[in-house]
Design goal:
two-stranded antiparallel ribbon
C-alpha cells in the first residue's frame, strides 16, 4: 500500500492477524545428502535471514531532514518517518515502527497541558521529546506540527545500520537479533540518550540527527501499545505504523494488519 492517504482520526480496530511470517529467527534449510557413492557432492546448509535493512542509497549522502518536514499533524508524520534514519555518535538506526500521539488524544502526554515534563512536547516540530518511563526507559519522540500544538510520534522500534558493537555495548546484550532494538526503551538506550536530549533539534548537524531514507510503500497498522488508560475510541484507533514484513517490530505483532 502506498502511503498517500490520510488516516482517519478514529478507526474501528482490525481483527488480529497472524504475523508469524515476520518471525525474526533465521531458519535453516538443509538439502538432502546425495546418496550416490560416486558423487562428491556434499550436503549444503543454507541460512536465510532478513535481519538487517539494505539501504538503497549511500548513507553518507543522506541529507538531514529540514524543519519543514515536521510541520504536519502527528498522524501524517508517523508513517513518513518509517524508513528514515536516526544518527548519533557513529550509530545509525533505521526507523521500522512508530506511534502517533495527537493534541486531542487522551493517550498523549499533552492532555495534561504544559508541565516541566511535557513542555518539550509543545515546542516546534522537528525537536526531540524524551521522557522517562517506569523510571528507567528513555523514550524518544519526534515532536510534530507547529509550536504549541502538543503532538509527537513515538519511535517504537528500529533496525541497526551502523555501530552494531556500540549498540550491543549500550544495550548490554551480545545479540544481533531483533530483540536488540524492538521496543522504545531499547531504541533510547542504543542511541545513548536521556531526558537531557529533549528540545534537541533533529535537523541540526551533530548531536542527534534525523536523515532522509528510502520511501516505504508497504506498511501495517494497528492500535497503540500500553494505553489502556485512554478513552476507548483512542485505545482502538489504528495509530501504530510499521514496515510490512520487517522482523524489527515490537510485540504484539498479531494486532498489526495492512490498512
Amino acid at each position: 500500500m502506498k502511503i498517500t492517504k490520510r488516516f482517519n482520526r478514529v478507526i474501528k480496530p482490525l481483527k488480529p492477524t497472524n504475523t508469524s511470517t515476520t518471525d525474526s529467527k533465521p531458519h535453516t534449510i538443509k538439502t538432502k545428502p546425495n546418496l550416490n557413492p560416486k558423487s562428491k557432492t556434499k550436503p549444503r546448509t543454507l541460512k536465510q535471514s532478513n535481519l538487517y535493512p539494505k539501504p538503497t542509497f549511500i548513507l553518507e549522502k543522506a541529507p538531514i531532514l529540514g524543519p519543514d518536514f515536521y510541520q504536519i499533524d502527528a498522524l501524517d508524520l508517523a508513517p513518513k518517518l518509517l524508513g528514515k534514519y536516526l544518527k548519533r555518535d557513529g550509530v545509525v538506526l533505521q526507523i521500522t515502527e512508530v506511534e502517533a500521539y495527537r493534541s486531542n488524544d487522551s493517550a498523549c502526554h499533552g492532555r495534561v497541558g504544559v508541565t516541566p515534563r511535557t513542555a518539550p512536547l509543545f515546542g516546534p516540530g522537528g525537536h526531540a521529546y524524551v521522557y522517562l518511563c517506569y523510571g528507567m526507559h528513555n523514550m524518544l519522540n519526534v515532536v510534530a506540527d507547529k509550536q504549541g500544538i502538543g503532538s509527537a510520534v513515538l519511535i517504537r522500534s528500529c533496525a541497526p545500520v551502523t555501530g552494531l558493537e556500540t549498540i550491543k555495548q549500550r544495550r548490554g546484550q551480545n545479540t544481533e537479533k531483533p530483540v536488540l532494538l524492538t521496543g522504545p526503551g531499547k531504541v533510547g538506550q542504543a542511541l545513548g540518550i536521556t531526558t537531557d536530549w529533549s528540545y534537541q533539534p533533529l535537523f541540526t548537524p551533530g548531536g542527534l540527527e534525523l536523515l532522509d531514507g528510502p520511501d516505504v510503500t508497504e506498511i501495517v497498522v494497528g492500535p497503540r501499545v500500553g494505553i489502556d488508560y485512554a478513552l476507548p475510541e483512542h485505545v482502538a484507533a489504528l495509530w501504530r505504523f510499521a514496515i510490512a514484513g520487517s522482523p524489527w517490530i515490537s510485540a504484539p505483532k498479531n494486532t498489526l494488519s495492512p490498512p
